[in-house]
Specification:
By secondary structure, this protein is α+β, with helices and mostly antiparallel strands. The chain has one domain: Glutaredoxin (3-Layer(aba) Sandwich), CATH 3.40.30. Helix content is 55%, strand content 12%. The protein has a four-stranded mixed β-sheet with strand order 2-1-3-4, covered by helices on one side. The N and C termini lie far apart (33 Å). 33% of the residues are buried.
């Protein structure tokens, strides 16, 4: 596992570099990933707009800011993603905003299709679901925890729908986008803060 993570980190980029990559792909009507279809290029274009909006408008509550800033451990947040992923477009800017609140958190981004071994080590119910945040201790290189591919409330929403209907429909996926817009990143912030609290319980006292 350490070797896989080390290799992925060497290929990783900053959030800013990832945003520049996506913006550049939009200019040439393309996308990240092995498969490059017109649909995926269109999703990338839509997601660039979503990320730009969240980068500007996202607000982290003061209570969460305090908890995040009090986390005292040097960690790397390695996030697996792709530009065409709708969930990632809502989640990536939130992860970045949280990481910016603590100098001990180093955010790195890798692409799923370029890191198959890493993705296979962090499957969700057997699926290569993204985005996936892997929290790594900088000193020991130990994996401390993970988050994703969706925040808790969205994951439960999806689970209930699949249990009832068997698969996600285009209409449901649109409803999920409305959920993200209404939630404004707050459930993601709560989940990630909770992960930090589990690692250092004093952070949340």
């Amino acid at each position: 596992m350490n070797a896989i993570i080390k290799d992925s980190l060497q290929k990783s980029m900053s959030y800013q570099a990832y945003r520049e990559l996506v913006a550049g792909l939009v200019e040439i009507n393309s996308t990240t990933g092995i498969e490059k279809t017109e649909d995926l290029a269109n999703y990338t274009k839509l997601n660039e707009k979503r990320m730009k909006r969240w980068d500007k408008t996202l607000k982290v509550p003061e209570a969460s800011k305090v908890k995040i800033s009090e986390f005292k451990q040097q960690v790397t947040w390695l996030v697996i993603t792709e530009s065409w992923c709708g969930d990632a477009a809502h989640i990536m800017p939130v992860i970045n905003k949280v990481a910016e609140l603590n100098n001990l958190i180093d955010l790195k981004v890798v692409l799923r299709d370029e890191n198959p071994e890493l993705m296979d080590a962090f499957l969700t119910n057997g699926n290569k679901a993204i985005p996936k945040l892997i929290m790594i201790d900088n000193e020991t290189q130990e994996v401390l925890g993970s988050f994703g591919p969706r925040p808790r409330e969205a994951a439960n929403y999806v689970k209930r729908f699949i249990a009832k209907h068997g698969a996600l429909t285009p209409e449901f996926k649109e409803d999920l986008q409305h959920w993200y817009n209404k939630d404004k990143g707050q459930n993601i912030i709560e989940d990630i803060t909770q992960l930090l609290c589990q690692l250092q319980p004093n952070v949340c006292q």
